[in-house]
Amino acid sequence: MSTLITNVCKQYDNNQGKTVLSNVSAEIETGEFFVIVGPSGCGKSTLLRMIAGLTEITDGEIAIDGKVVNNLPPKDRNLTMVFQSYALFPFLSVWDNVAFGLKARKHDQAEVSERVNNALKMVNLEDLKDRKPRELSGGQRQRVALARAVASDAKICLMDEPLSNLDAQLRIKMRQEIYALQRKLGITLIYVTHDQVEAMTMADHIMVLHDSKVQQIGTPTEIYKNPANEFVASFFGVPPINIMYASKVGAHSIKVNNDYQLDLDQAVTENELKVGIRPNEMIVEKAEELQSNATVQNVEFLGDEKIVHAKFNNGVMVSAIVPSDTEFDMFETVKITSTGNVLLFSQDGINITENKGGLVNA
Amino acid sequence: MINIDERKILKNLFSYILLIVLAVVILVPFFIGIWTSFLPTADILKGNYFSTNISLTNYLDAFTKTPILRYLGNTVVVSTLIMLAHLLFCSMSAYAFVFLDFKYKKFFFALFMVTMMLPGEAAIIPNFQTVKALGLLDHYSAMVVPALTSAFGTFMLRQAFLQTPKELKEAADIEGLNHFQIFWKVILPYNRISLITLGAYSFLGAWNSYLWPILVTFSNESRVIQNGLKQLQSEETFNNWGMIQASAAIIVIPTILVLFIGQHYFKSGLNEGAVK
Predict the structure, then answer these.
(1) Which chain B residues touch A76 with a CB distance below 8 Å?
(2) Between A and B, how many residue pairs show a Cβ–Cβ distance under 8 A?
(3) Where does the ABC transporter domain start and stop, copy by copy (chain A) (predicted)?
(4) CATH for the stretch A3-233
(5) Domains identified in chain B, total number
(6) By the 8 A CB rule, do A334 and A326 touch?
(7) Is there a contact between B78 and B143 (Cβ–Cβ < 8 Å)?
(8) Which of A48, A49, A69, A100 to mutate to test the interface with B (most CBs of B within 10 A)?
């Protein structure tokens, strides 16, 4: 059951007809893990709710398995949804919460109990099946919500930031559990998040939304190595990519930040451009004040590596990843350069890097 | 520093004295009533309130010599019917006002609210004429039918339903429940505390109503307890005050029961864990 989204638009009547989504198109294949990612307010939850049928579509078409579902109520779209807030029924036990939808869809009793028990086993909640949601921890509540999706026979599962209420450790654990479940059940999972790490680690395909428009759709590797534009490049990667102005100084070389010269493999086509350099491609060396071009502002120790935040003499901030055994002090003067492994953007932020496969292997 | 402490203590002292005085003012008549219900009428009339002649005779008399049991039965039936009707009709109308989309929704809700602004007494004459025309006088239905629904109940439940997390309804929508199922399986259980509150409020309201029942009932077959109490005074040529006090004490019992049982349900946190 592939899901086809064609030129979908959403405008609200109030709010001076504010456009929430414009011309969103995507094809979500059967059994894939599809992540919709973007900063808050970009319309990603709205898109998910439109697929679910909870929000009306202003324009465009959503088709599930070849059938246009624009005017179909949620229940006839054969999907399940895991809400950000879990939406558990506080007056029902864990078991009844999971069985709720199955009972409503009039499955026979034996089938309901088999499905519910299997689902609870899959999320390790068998022992807690008689508890009420208020007697569960956040992670356990999340698992009940997952079990509800697992127990359903729907082939599409929608998740709206299901992990955003959990603490960091639990989030990593649940991330793996959700991924494993999706692979095991073979369901199509459409997952909304604002967390680029979640998107990168779980997705088969990622849709990046920003400013109510699709910025790029691709695999995590494509999106990281070959971002369509400056926004996508800076949205993925921790710490974020350093974007600096650069100018052409030769056919194959540019001057970055009006500071140091960088030789590139590709031909430089524009006179004024922007360059994106991942923090791990930056080179930081200790330097005397006269040879230096930047000052260390802050150093973060992460264990295996350190992140150096430095300020170029002209005020531009950059971050760089250095080995953890190198010592940098605050306000130390340094010389910063980079490898040639960089992304080039036009002044408008469009990626103009020549894609030679190995060029950007960050 | 010491000055401030002294002022604080004085302030506390003053507050507590005020509270104690108020508590005494409120509770003393109540206790006098209970106490005199155990005293023989002769002692009460003599003003001998500290008599040690206490017994349960007054209660026995109330049950055996007066139709108070009949009154109680009538009141239980009428109050229960009114309570059930309020729960049913108010919750259904509140659901409509919250979850259904229809034209002029706001207007209709405003109209509902307007009826709440009218004092019940203002409607007594037209209501009486209607009930009389329908031939319901001196029946339970004369008391039940005009009180089948309550604008306050709808308003109260509407506010409660508005607080229900919308994800719960959406989850139910996705599972394919229809409006009636959502109403019955999601909205009502989620708002059971509000329903219990409204139920208690409606039951006690009906239990304590006086003016309307006294207008539409004439016989012991349909007379409710509050009117019955009044009746006890005039039926006897000699007012048996001890027994009347005992009857009054009996009437208060349900109110106290509802309060105590109700308190058990007002534990907070029953709905915790639904959404985060």
Answers:
(1) 176
(2) 91
(3) 3-236
(4) 3.40.50.300
(5) 2
(6) no
(7) yes
(8) A100
